[in-house]
Amino acid sequence: MTSPLSLKLALLGVPAFALWFLFSAPATAQTPEAASTTYAGELADQFVQVRLNDGTLKYGKLVAVTPSDVVIDVVGLGPTSIPKYLVQDLSAVQADAAQMEQGYGYVSNQPSRYFFAPSGMQLSEGEGYFQSNIALNSISYGFSDRFTGGIMVSVVGAGLTAKFGGEVKENVHMSVGGLAAIDYYGNLDRPLMLGFANITFGDDNKNLTFNVGMGNRIDDGYFYSGMTVDSTYSQSWDGSYYWNTLYTFDTRNEEYQNPFLFNVSGMFPLMANRWFITENYLVVPTFRRSDPVAQVPPYETGYPAWSTEPQMRSDPGGGVSIGIRSYNKRTGWLWDYGLAGVFSGGLGFPVPWFSFTLEF
């Protein structure tokens, strides 16, 4: 029988990947209002950095500053309008021509998540996305620059997600949050709850995230205690006699544990509109304990060996995953695809992953 933890591990994609980081320092910054009077002069057609209120950086060639938007030509994406109320400042920057041509480090898409795991970065207020791989569908929305909430619907259950945080210093983001889910079929005795905290180093395009989490109580087996033994002298079918021993238990000990999760995820650009992504997990059963419950009526068996010792059937597990995120300029869809090696109890197996995402 598959344990609840093993079912969860199959949905999770341990770390061993080194990534590079891009830390861009803005030149002399000015507000979008000031830029609106000067973009036709000193900033016209220049490569600029747009810093949003949540610390996110956008890069591209300045096209225009209108009364409501800052418009930049993002490498590989074309003209992109950014609402002024989301913009903290606008500045010209120096960029390596080869990097600009190849699109390295200058296109920002979905920095708030990897395949599934969250980063420390937030969606900006009013931003959102729909993500699906058919079996699992989710919507996330930035209710403010520091709070992102969402819903999930899958073929086995549904849930809610929440994340609060922001930039604590340049190119360092932190967040805390959680996930709550229920299944449709009653296989879980209670809703699945997971709380997490993470820290992300880097910018929108090149970053590394360390994430720790703890789940709520999970059933982890049971065993019996309070044994009494009764033997009767019985006659078998062939007429011979034998002692028939019956073991009776008056207590059932329910076993529980809390899964501790450690995650390392990262991404960096490979070319224009394409990024390498890795998302890796280690899940360790912790806080194992048992609660005695009176067994009414008493449990009787002739073979007690398997039932009188703690079971603790869950083993450490996790997964190592790698893949690609690709942006389709024509359709506006993001495509994530990769492969995860999932392991539990010393056994492993590969699991393919794909999803498509539409930003709104």
Structure characterization notes:
With about 350 residues, the protein is mainly beta. The protein folds into 2 domains: about 5-15 and about 110-360, Beta Barrel (Porin), CATH 2.40.160; about 30-100, Roll (SH3 type barrels), CATH 2.30.30. Helices cover about 5% and strands about 60% of the residues. It contains 3 helices and 19 strands. It has a 12-stranded antiparallel beta barrel with strand order 7-8-9-10-11-12-13-15-16-17-18-19. Strand 3 (about 55-65) and strand 4 form a beta hairpin. The protein is elongated. The protein starts with a helix and ends with a strand.
Secondary structure topology:
Elements: H1 4-9, E1 29-30, H2 32-38, E2 47-52, E3 57-65, E4 69-74, E5 78-83, E6 87-92, H3 97-102, E7 128-132, E8 136-142, E9 147-154, E10 157-169, E11 172-183, E12 192-202, E13 207-215, E14 218-235, E15 241-271, E16 274-301, E17 317-327, E18 333-344, E19 347-359
Antiparallel strand pairs: 1-6, 2-3, 2-6, 3-4, 4-5, 7-8, 7-19, 8-9, 9-10, 10-11, 11-12, 12-13, 13-15, 14-15, 15-16, 16-17, 17-18, 18-19
Largest sheet: 12 strands, antiparallel, barrel
CATH architecture of the largest domain: Beta Barrel
* Rg: 28 Å
Which stretches are poorly predicted, pLDDT < 50 over at least 5 residues?
A: 1-40, 96-108
Query: What fold name goes in the CATH topology slot of the largest domain?
Result: Porin
Mean pLDDT: 79
Distance between the termini: 42 Å
Which secondary-structure class do the elements indicate?
mainly beta
Number of helices: 3
**What CATH first level of the largest domain would be assigned?**
Mainly Beta
CATH homologous superfamily title of the largest domain:
monomeric porin ompg
